[in-house]
Amino acid sequence: MSAPQHSFLAAKLQRTGASISELFSSLTDDRPDAAWRRRQLGDPTPERDPLYFECHIDAYLACFAKPEASIGQVFNFCTGVIQSVLGWEVKVSVNEGLRRTIDFWRKKLAGSERAIRAATT
User: Fold this and answer.
1) pLDDT, tens digit (0-9, with 9 covering 90-100), for 25-40
2) What are the residue boundaries of the structural domains of the chain, listed by start?
3) Regarding predicted confidence, which is higher, 110 or 48?
4) How far are the Cα atoms of 40, 78, 80, 86, 115 from residue 47, in angstroms, in the given order?
5) What angle do CA 16, 20, 44 make, to 5 degrees?
6) Where would you tag: which of 1, 26, 78, 108 has the fewest CB atoms within 10 A of its CB?
7) How far apart, in whole angstroms, are the C-alpha atoms of residue 29 and residue 96?
8) Would you call 73 helix, strand, or coil by DSSP?
């Protein structure tokens, strides 16, 4: 994820009081209360499917690459409609996207901890 995406996620988590681990747990939890928690991170009316940011960008690029087929269309990138119209499909699974995001944050937080220790010693 890019820095703006991480900042957006961090702001959402701060407003809701949720932790990153609670967010990731709720995204993969099928219990009804988990779905409620997931919707509380944003607008409570639409349903959203998790989509790794690289796939999201690729979907927009697919739309730009075929304007004659995509102008005037509304696509939910997680359904098969965009695949049948533009030939685009998700390349990173939810589990793989979560793994990549968690790895990113682990590395970033470990680097921050090292910088704080170096600055305070």
Assistant:
1) 655 656 655 554 544 5
2) 53-91
3) 110
4) 11, 11, 16, 23, 40
5) 40
6) 108
7) 16
8) coil
